[in-house]
Amino acid sequence: MSDTRAAVWPELPTAAWRDTYATLRLWTQIVGKIRLSRSPWLNHSWHVTLYVNARGLTTSPIPDGARHFEIEFDFIDHSLRILASDGPRRQFPLAGQSVASFYTLIVAALAELGIDAVIDEMPNELPDPVRFSATELAALLANETVADAVPEICGVNVRVNAILRPGASVSGRAIPPSENSGLVMLADDMVTLEPLAVSVAR
User: Fold this and answer.
1) Alpha-carbon gap, residue 5 to 49, rounded angstroms
2) What is the mean pLDDT of the chain?
3) Nearest of 188, 193, 184, 190 to residue 24 by alpha carbon
4) What is the 3-state secondary structure (H, E, C) of 70-103?
5) β-bridge partners, 56
6) All structural domains of the chain with their residue ranges
7) Among 159, 154, 162, 200, residue whose Cα is nearest residue 30
């Protein structure tokens, strides 16, 4: 791979951060299920997907009565933020969190904001799933190699999103919105694009 291409599409050491990948997958399922529980139904579960932003992933605004709230993964600062449209916000670090501790913290943060979010705790589309509150799998975000890799993943997501977003041009052809599901894509070997699961129960 040329230096220029490597700078734009860095190698992602998937073997080194396999536990982090698995943990991120479950974290995003938790957040996707929260969005699912509070959003009006859209065809093909489009109301569940997480969107790429400049620092990671976001739910976009989720209705909560007369206000809205948004949940954002900041993979640059390694934090999870919940922002309410009427001002309050909550935040906690991602580093060192297991799936179970992440689930406990996000449920508590939502409760502090007066947001009631009841979800099905069982992960979807996984063999032998274990409830989120009992899953001790932990991302190794404190590990220097993995901590360096997560911002790289974020950068690749931003570049892939620029190509796949509605109206983007690929080889001279515009992609209509119906062809872009909004699912987060991770470049595994820069040839195969592997979805970071935002797959949740209907």
Assistant:
1) 29
2) 74
3) 184
4) EEEEECCCCEEEEEECCCCEEEEECCCCEHHHHH
5) 53, 74
6) 7-195
7) 200
